[in-house]
User: Fold this.
Amino acid sequence: MSKAPELDLCTINVPVNANLLFKYWDEECVIYNNLSGETHLLEHYGAELLSSINEQPKTYQTLLKKLTTDFDGSPQAKIAGHLENILTHFQELNLIEMKACD
Amino acid sequence: MKISDLPTKKLAYQLKDQGIIINIGPYCINLSSTLATVAVNLKTHYGTYNLATKEDITDFYINVDAPSLSRRWLRPQAVFSFDGHIPFKPLPQPQAFAMFEWGLNWVVANNAHNHLIIHSAVLEKNGKALIFPGSPGSGKSTLCAGLVTQGWRLLSDEMALLSLKTGLLTPIPRPISLKNQSIEIIKSIPGNFFVGESVHDTAKGTVAHMSAPQNSVERSHELAKPSAVIFPKYRNGAETDLSPLSKGRTFLALADNSFNYHVLGETAFSALTTMIDQCKCYNFTYQDLDSAYETMDRLIDA
Assistant:
């Protein structure tokens, strides 16, 4: 999947008025989205990433830095691709919005 | 006073007149009908249920009757109505009692939002309630009826009522709906239980109802603590197999099996996570009922 050119300039946040509820069990997490009424099952790491965005909007670069630290030793391109997949998935589920920075 | 205390003629008269008000689990149902088959089956399957007292407040008004004068004689049909509304198409009159059962499921599932309602059987033994969610054909009702013949308490064959207030399961014991081959399987089990007449050519095939045990009806007020969630799957020739299922996947499956998860929203999420926290979760494949009984007993004893 090719990265959208503006992605690395994006701010990522959960939708306005979203109240995401998280419940972790072992390596899984179920997340309730009050805006869609849907519940999603995510693996633990992805849920923590979403939780951090839920606490406070993050820039793409901030998230990339976090993943680079968490997956120390992995090639940067692979990490960036992984992050892009996660964010695209979250966006498809209406769990996040991505806005271009001013 | 129980329904069985009413002579059949008087029961039929009251059903035709103002209806009778029955305590079924946490609800008071006003049922009226002019159909003899409804009166007979009501006495057969609900004889041990209490009639409501003057202090009880009726929750739902249900009528099962012939639709019009012409259809009373020509291939007679039955119509189900709830609070004056007719939610389903008429069915052949021999299916009138089954229609009452299906209709009552619909009424509770669509209106009882003080509970999270999950499509599942619920049985209890030694204070531990097991929840058996299942889609049609999964073998849920067969396993449920089988366990009832072994002395398990029936909370429901059709719906788990998870109290949003207490986190406990509210019993609503009613006749178990057996279909097709499972009718003869259950009838062949020795024991003191009753399976009514088979009704053929329904949308679900041949259907017969097994009465809820008297003990289960009498203990309708005793809520039960959820202990395990078990997704049954009857498979011909299969070895009995109880495999752990992750709590996350269990959650999604229960939400999918719930009638009102989307209605209750965050409240349902919270109630379901709390329940799953205290439950063990499994997939269960079976063919042989005796082996299934042993597995469930071991689970309870563990």
The interface with chain A takes residues 246-249, 251-252, 255, 261-262, 265-266, 269-270, 273, 276 of chain B (CB under 8 Å). The first helix of chain B runs from residue 8 to 16. Chain B is about 35% helix and 30% strand. The two ends of chain B are 40 Å apart (CA to CA).
